Fold these 4 entries.
Entry 1:
Amino acid sequence: MSHVNLGMIEEAAAFIQSKGGVKPEVGLILGSGLGVLADLLVDTLSIPYSDIPHFPVSTVEGHEGELLLGKIQGRPVVMMKGRFHMYEGYGPEVTAFPVRVMKQLGVKSLLVTNAAGGIDTSFEPGDLMLITDHLNMTGRNPLIGPNDPALGVRFPDMSEAYSRRLRKLALETAENHGVMLKQGIYAGLLGPTYETPAEIVMLRTLGAHAVGMSTVSEVIVARHAGLEVLGISCISNMAAGILDQPLSHEEVMETAEKVRDQFLKLVMAVIPAM
Ligand code: HPA
């Protein structure tokens, strides 16, 4: 699948709606090791990605592929447990296809989460970082190709990619619940290699505070679709070259596990107010 059109989006959404389940208002994309939120859903309907028309199938370990509909604190949500990455070989418009389907289902705001390497040396593994903005370092864009005005404008504004209103809400919620929430700019790269130490120095020079291999194409499509976006990174490791140790996916998953309770506390409180 390379080109995405409205018909494909409608077909996927109609299939999901035909299964029953809630009419979602908030969309959630759960990053590596952060799938635990799915256990807190009520009235859950689970649909494997492989059943949904035009959905690709996620291949990476630690990313189960299912779309979940249900309620969190009474709020109807649609949740992606497992996402699609460009390093799996998918084009950016494919990785972001589910966001367009969420919009078609009636979603108004999107919470994107990810595991990321800490570039800011004041960060520590286990920190949660509110994404204030991003650097799209993938060299790709999901909106390349003919623009369908039914989906959004040709030249979308990205000056508030991560909603000011939702950032304020997240910071206040974190404060009220005693959750430490740092803030910073997320650099999205293609992967699948982790970065070299020189690349991390470059990214720091460019203003990035954290680095990962997801999120940017989803957020671009969300903004194109007029969705309000909230982004939270779990700093799972210090980026390459900061500590004298190699990076591993195991470390990323282990840290996500450790920060789980704080993460859940924050998102459970934020979602009803989104
Ligand atoms: N780099 C890129 N992606 C990541 C990292 C990292 O250090 N940690 C988790 N995802």
Entry 2:
Amino acid sequence: MRIVLLGPPGAGKGTQAKSISNRYSIPHISTGDIFRKNISEQTPLGIEAKKHIDKGHLVPDDLTIDIVKDRLSQRDCDKGFLLDGFPRTVRQAEALEEFLSSKGKKLNTALLIDVPRDFILERMTGRRVCPACGASYHIKFNPPAIEGRCDLCGTDIIQRKDDKESTVKERLDVYDSQTQPLIDYYKSKDLLSVVYGTKAINEVFESICNILGSDRNGNN
Ligand code: AP5
Ligand code: MG
Ligand code: ZN
């Protein structure tokens, strides 16, 4: 099963991606997580990406596309994958399509998690993330079992630097101008499915599973 997750910042892509990846046994590939790991390790990629991310802007297409192609070329993606936060521009979407078709493959679904702007600020400012495994929490809507600690790996959870209000607004504007056009792009290819991301986390997951079907081995 080859899936891309679309949706504005704070829609719940990372939250749902963890559950989808477990249920359907496909790797969860988040470009945001890849960049953040490189930033924390201060690699050349991380140093370059940080300049853009801290301002709420996109990392340049060429850089991002190369990283995703490398990652999709790894063996664990043979059975499928779940892309979270990629593509984010029409150019990235075209590059993905070309890459897959060169391997005789195509996407199964572009899944949009639709959340209106009003919900987003509260979600972003209350978000805490695990710097080690990328898990996402919310102080009100999805707190960890032990305050301040990741449920999955025990690491202290932190607030993301780009979750301050002014940067969130910039990220939303970038989403509207550069990523929103992908909705029509995938609609025109008959690949778009939409779930409403305003319900509780487990209810959103249920809607996603209804769309993706019951095959847990990624053979769809
Ligand atoms: P990225 O890390 O992808 O950030 P994003 O797309 O802005 O999305 P978020 O991770 O902020 O939100 P999410 O949808 O994952 O929500 P979450 O599940 O955490 O990218 C960061 C930056 O990297 C970009 O700005 C860009 O600079 C760069 N970048 C990344 N990919 C790129 C690309 N392809 N090209 C160029 N640049 C790229 O949930 C949010 C909060 O809400 C959490 O606290 C969660 O617990 C809570 N929550 C989730 N679901 C619910 C629910 N149903 N009800 C209540 N609360 C909920
Ligand atoms: Mg995320
Ligand atoms: Zn963790």
Entry 3:
Amino acid sequence: MQKKGLLIVISGFSGVGKGTIVRELLSRYPENFALSISATSRPMREGEEEGREYFFVNREKFERMISEDRLLEHAVYNGNYYGTPKDYVLQEVNAGRNVILEIEVQGGLQIRDKFPDSLLLYVVPPSAKELYARLVGRGTESVSEILRRMRRAVDEADFVPRYDAMTVNDDLETCVREVYELIRKKQEEAAFRDELLSRLKEELLIITKEDDNQ
Ligand code: 5GP
């Protein structure tokens, strides 16, 4: 039987570098990982492409996707819908690939509820000052938008303990290796657990059957 892939949620404060970490994982291990492309009702930004960053849909279409149960999870962020299309993710997981979902915390926790075996990772910056510098440096948001995102980070911080692990993106290389290690460890543990449990179940059945025969 084909071994299933792992669902990996990567969340983190806006501007922390989640996108770069995910791109690194995909380019270093293209065989191992697939990236889920979300649907969103937010307008397309300059430089974005349909089907590359997101599938851009209007609110009506998004609500239809919800009612037709075509999303694995969804959330409202800054007044816009965001959600993970179900078909692609399940197809890749069933083909044995690890699928990365780069999503915010409400969605991450929905994935945890539906797929207890998923891995939830949260990326934080080394300091608030550094986060501010990164957000200013990428030049895609106004100062008031940056401050709004940083205020949101204060609320998000309370959810981080519900994730499996938190990693600090200080040095990118160290952070990518740490994330990869966490994924590898989770897979190893799951493989060990599944193998041992299936052997134990078989043994238990044999012993209890022998007892039944007496
Ligand atoms: P942005 O508008 O800056 O691209 O994304 C805003 C937030 O939405 C980010 O935290 C991003 O990770 C999150 N996000 C992107 N796609 C999804 C999704 O499918 N589901 C959820 N719950 N959040 C998402």
Entry 4:
Amino acid sequence: MERIKMTTPLVEMDGDEMTRILWADIKKILLEPYIQLETLYFDLGLPERERTKDQVTVDAAEATKKYGVAVKCATITPNAQRVEEYQLSQMWKSPNGTIRAILDGTVFRAPIMVKGISPVVKNWKRPITIARHAFGDVYKSTEYKVPGPGKAELVFTPAEGEAVRQTIYDFRGPGVLQGQFNTVASISSFARSCFQFALDSRQDLWFATKDTISKQYDHTFKDIFQEIYDTEYAARFQEAGIEYFYTLIDDAVARVIRSEGGFIWACKNYDGDVMSDMVSTAFGSLAMMTSVLVSPDGNYEYEAAHGTVTRHYYKYLKGEETSTNPIATIFAWTGALRKRGELDGIPALEEFSGKLEAACLAVIEGGSMTKDLAGLWEGEVPAVTLNSRQFLEAIRDELEKRL
Ligand code: NAP
Ligand code: MG
């Protein structure tokens, strides 16, 4: 069989620990035999980030801007313990944070559903994709512990002109205080990423805030979304047969639970943080989630939603058998390859991605899976637990039947 040729390279970002092991195996077993893989390789593993003073992360993000599509392995975000373990000269920042800051995007996360593992919410028939605004609000807030009686004020000093003052509260005793912000530029690019992703994936878009209470702050989010929708997207949504729907956050959570799924839920930063954990848990597991960063100017970075699975890696280093789920990492590759195929007009690449994804689901639905899924399995046949390697080989066998 002739291998599929690519015309533009994918930006490939390698990572750490167990997912780095899976990364190499996925390429060797599931991709390279069928595709003449063209990638620009960046090693985002912690030792290389240390060696290059994290320049490699910046270079990888810049390459993504240039080439448009990247695929990323999970990476360690260093903490004090990692600084010691890897003898780091600095506590390097989260690569995802660095990449997001350069690409200015929104992260979309969706569960991968299989028959035999059912969502906790019985009426959810299709995936719910969460789009989280990843800038500002409480994550960039300034906080203050009020020691005792006094007046708290909100003061804005414009670059030109008089300062504006408002009383927040007259404290009669101790308390707490918080100042948060967002920007029209960031909210607008969040809105555009969401509308664009809805069009790309042909799904309705829901957005919700607490605008009835927060008449300036949250209302601004609502207004920006509406204005951008009306002026730039309404016609295209109509053409695609999809809808933009705004409601109050309280109403949204109730509707989400009663829904059948199959839409994108755009969330403010905090809502997205909390709701994505709830939705992913209710659907099954982080190892069964796709995750893609979409920038407003149309760059895509595909990754797994979970981390480097450290606990399994230490077992692997001791020579013990591991049963780590590779599905989210495989789907990062298929997402990126499909997008590359779409952009470059290579239908064979899109077709291959679809077949590989279908092979993954078929193996699980046939009762063979990794240990994490065996615990959730409700299928008719008893689950067969495979180690990571056996599981990848089972997927390859299934894929070959389809090619
Ligand atoms: P984690 O790697 O997601 O793993 C937490 C636990 O979840 C694992 O111990 C395992 O449970 C289960 N799990 C996660 N993914 C799995 C998979 N594919 N297959 C089977 N089980 C899976 O989170 P962590 O241990 O908190 O973080 C480890 C490192 O990852 C940290 O250094 C962190 O900075 C980094 N991280 C990176 C990203 C990213 O690059 N996107 C995201 C999050 C965390 P059992 O042990 O019970 O089997
Ligand atoms: Mg969270």
